[in-house]
Amino acid sequence: MNRFAQKLTENSISLRRRRSEILQVNVGKICNLTCVHCHVNAGPRRKEIMTRETIDRVIDWLAKTDIRIVDLTGGAPEMIPDFRYFVDRVKALHPSRHVIDRCNLTILLDPGYEDLPEFLARHKVEIIASMPCYTPENVNAQRGEGVFEGSIKALQLLNSLGYGKAVDLPLHLVYNPVGAFLPGPQAEMEADFKRELFSHFGIVFNKLYTITNLPIGRFAAYLRHNDKLDEYMELLISTFNPATIDGLMCRNTISVGWRGEVYDCDFNQQLGLQWKNGAPLFLWDVDPHTIENREITTGNHCFGCTAGAGSSCGGAIV
Ligand code: SF4
Ligand code: SF4
Questions:
Q1: Is the Cβ atom of 31 under 6 angstroms away from ligand 1?
Q2: pLDDT for 96-144, tens place per residue?
Q3: Which of 219, 281, 261, 277 is CA-nearest to residue 48?
Q4: Is the CB of 147 under 6 A from ligand 1?
Q5: 139 lines ligand 1 (CB under 6 A)
Q6: 245-284: string of b/e by CB count within 10 Å (b at 16+)?
Q7: How far is the CA of 142 from the centre of ligand 2 (A)?
């Protein structure tokens, strides 16, 4: 039994899935950036990309469910050749589904993507954008030289299209700590981000989501390299908060990989903790009616979701 499972037992908690509300699809590992904190190890040279055939199978499965939200992530999800095809097909379903694009902002300025912001706005795609700080030093240290300036330009472009202003064009930002520590209080950080981004750049947005870095992927390598992995794990373990369990994203979100494999969350996906029923399961192997109450696969990395105020795809939990 891993330490997280032990902790759940000590607290008499059984971690099981509830009704599925979100289908989160990681469409590939290709990305125009190579951020220090990336748990996907994404980058420009990664070849893993969801094919159109797999997209069709995912859509066929989705059409049989009442899941109303499709959350597209990566890598930079917009870089796969069939990103727009995927969005078009989801929006064409009856009833249509809400689409979220987890966007790194800079991709919106890259050559070949000039009309992408308009495409997203036309399809009313919600944007959840990474923005680890409102100062250039911290952003460029975590995400690469020039990323801050590009992110500011992209946010101004999105605002000019109505994002962050119109009710049907939500724009949320994601903050990740730039080191081995937990995020500060979400409401206070949101107020700081809103004040600074507006006063310096005229930028507006809806919500700030604070997300804890999980000790996996490139972030684990960074911690190991700086001899901080054990210290960070102890921090996560010592701040375990049972009140976060109810809001963990693995309870209502199904995570799908670029080949159609199924997991409890994107972190489990990066660790290869695929659902199994004897053999590894793909989305089209899963009867949607059998998901509720399924036991969730955990590991020590789960302490990253339950530390302090908790952390999920929608930010702090409590
Ligand atoms: S954190 Fe996001 S933007 Fe950065 S390399 Fe990973 S997938 Fe790309
Ligand atoms: S990493 Fe977080 S979301 Fe994933 S299974 Fe563990 S607790 Fe749930």
A1: yes
A2: 999 999 999 999 999 999 999 999 999 999 999 999 888 898 888 888 8
A3: 261
A4: no
A5: no
A6: bebbbbbbbbbbbbebbbbbbbbbbbbebbbeeeeebbbe
A7: 23
